[in-house]
Amino acid sequence: MLAAVTRSPGVMVVGQVPEPGPPGPQDVIVRPEAVGICGSDLHFYSGDTGALSGARSFFPRIQGHELSAVVEQTGKDCPGGVRAGDRVAVWPLRGCGRCYPCRAGRANACVSLDLVGIHRDGGLQQLLSVPVSQVFGVGDLGPEPAAFVEPMSIAVHALGRAGIPDGQQVIILGAGPIGLATALAASAAGARVMATDPVPARRDLALKVGAENVAWGGDGELLDAVQAWTHGQGAPTVIDTTGDPGALAQATRLVCSAGRVVVVGMSAAAAPLRSGVFPEKEIDVLGSSCATAADFRAAVALVQSHREAIAALFSHRFPLTHAREAIECVADPAAGAVKVLITVGGPEL
Ligand SMILES: [Zn+2]
Ligand SMILES: [Zn+2]
Predict the structure, then answer these.
(1) Which ligand sits nearest to residue 148's alpha carbon?
(2) What is the pLDDT averaged over residues 213-224?
(3) Which ligand is the nearest neighbour of the Cα of 35?
(4) 44, 263, 269, 292: least surrounded by Cβ within 10 Å?
(5) DSSP secondary structure of 200-217
(6) Which one of the ligands is nearest to 53 CA?
């Protein structure tokens, strides 16, 4: 079967790989249909694995952690709810079950996190074996929106961390796919959203998915916009989805006293931060990592009820044979990419 193999940093080759054998008793064999490519795929592809946990060897690897698929075969001990022919979204995460976060019910922060497409082979191949506990039926969702369940689950988890009461104002830094998913999920939950992004087309998309306000500019301009929107208070919640090392300092300036900052975007870089702002404003700063099974289930429902808005986020599509171009498209600011999809089961294969 065909797969896109990232052999070493910057080297992706599409070629033949062996098919998985019959499924283990509690595994399913799925046929990936659509795979979303995101910033973390690009980091991985470039060999920038510094933000990933553990000193592990990542290459060679078949990437792809945002995937929709059709169940091909189920293992003999799989529950009856999952059947061959079902379309599913794959929850890429499994925890070790032994560390403190796993025992605390927070496998999404496991110290030896195991993610499909990063720590083990992912969706950029024609067949994939995964534990049945990691597939979620998506009903009549099409393959493309079903591939957006994973990024939506990241947004759902971040909002859980933010704990935004109904009607409250939230600033979302960054209107890439995760920022847009967060804007959509927050608006759907009744929050009032302002999104920031340097790219005008992304700001327009933020308005389309439910933000009531968008802004961009230098630090002073942005602060002015936020002050005007919040009657001089700052926002009770700021969620950073940018992965820009300077965003945390910016978030601490935009958040109001007693407010909360949630950091979703990842970066291995350091950035200066005035630590006095934490006690002065008594702000909470929380990280948000991946998503739990419950978040993933909630994300399926959110994607099901916002198909049209989500369809507007798919900017580019490539067949599996052109997987490298898909990654390069995400990397190229001039391409204007939002969510880039790779179609795995296309007729050209
Ligand atoms: Zn992703
Ligand atoms: Zn663990």
Answers:
(1) 1
(2) 93
(3) 1
(4) 269
(5) HHHHHHHHHTT-SEEE-S
(6) 2
